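Project standup — Tuesday

K.O.: blocked on the structure for the chain from last sprint. Re-posting the sequence here as requested.
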Amino acid sequence: MNYRHSFHAGNFADLVKHALALWLIRQRAGQGPLTVLDTHAGAGLYDLSGDGMRSKEAEAGVARLMTADNRPPLIEALAKEVASFNPQGGVRFYPGSPVLIARALGKGGTYKGFELNPPVKALLDEALKDYPNAQGFEGDGYDLTEAAALKVQGPLVLIDPPFERGDDYIRSAETAARIVKRDPKAVVAIWTPLKDMETFDGFVRRLEEAKAPRVLVAEARLRPLNNPMKMNGCTMTVVNAPSGTDAATAEICGWVAQTLGDEKARAEIWRAS
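H.V.: unblocked you, prediction finished:
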């Protein structure tokens, strides 16, 4: 599955991923400067009149977010960020994780995003030019994130691969486990598509075999998992999940499933270890 950021920007999975990222940053408030490391940063800011409009995914995701009533607090926090990029109304622009995180980090906080594709890296640099606390780097995000994690204490690591490579599930799990094993204060949040449980169960088993601690899995299922060629939902797997993650993910995934899914949509939050 090729999960190209620009094609899928602003879809339901982005809402899950970005609402949780904002909460994880706020959860660390008051504990000193935070470093966020992002393995697959993407372009940073997306014009939905391009790929996003052609895919129709933003129309079924962020467009519905912005017109929804009675948004719960963690969903409302993301909606306010999106609104700030669209002062004229509507949802032409959608901020990716690099820009959202750069804006959310407190004093002394640092964002480092890694991007393998040179043209996308150039777009990332442009998106981050007004944020001195944020920087993009070109290269393999898994390796560069591990190296960067060695130099800081207690980073928040986001792993969000495009699933263009057959080993993305393996590398995601193994990278997360190694980072947390070396630094018990690190938190790693991994996004994956949810197409079928066999593939996802293999990913979770790798985390368990690597003895990754306090693994929380949050699923947002928009439809039954009966078509493995379609993204039926998504998951956020948090390694070394901090206190409150259960409630935060239940609020986020529950809203996304209930509001954007079909009649059989549901959210599931469970602990793997």
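K.O.: great, moving the ticket to review. The first strand starts at residue 35 and ends at 38. The mean pLDDT is 93.
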